[in-house]
């Protein structure tokens, strides 16, 4: 059986070589992106670990143009409470 598998890369497979840029200033770069109709201005996502993303962290990420993924191992009741808190803040 001859199967073709897609190629996947990890961080260990990629090497970035420093070089001169044609961009005059970092302020000229637009880092914004769109996700489900929401424009985000920071290319950072807080991961869904309970030691990383609390409700406060998710709110702070939202206020700064990104988002945080709430922990998945919380009980459904705790998840619902956290989502309600984030939604009540306008996110």
Automatic annotation (TrEMBL):
One record GO biological process: GTP biosynthetic process
List the Gene Ontology MF annotations in alphabetical order: IMP dehydrogenase activity
InterPro entries (UniProt xref): Aldolase_TIM, IMP_DH, IMP_DH_GMPRt
Q: Where is the IMP dehydrogenase/GMP reductase domain?
A: 9-88
Similarity comment: family membership: Belongs to the IMPDH/GMPR family.
Put simply, this protein is called GMP reductase
Report the source organism.
Answer: Candidatus Shapirobacteria bacterium GW2011_GWE2_38_30
């Amino acid at each position: 059986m001859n199967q073709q598998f897609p190629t996947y890369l990890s961080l260990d497979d990629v090497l970035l070589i420093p070089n001169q840029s044609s961009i005059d200033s970092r302020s000229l770069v637009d880092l914004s992106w769109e996700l489900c109709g929401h424009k985000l201005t920071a290319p950072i996502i807080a991961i869904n670990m309970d030691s990383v993303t609390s409700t406060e962290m998710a709110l702070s990420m939202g206020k700064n143009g990104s988002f945080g993924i709430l922990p998945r191992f919380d009980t459904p009741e705790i998840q619902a409470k956290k989502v309600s808190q984030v939604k009540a803040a306008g996110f």
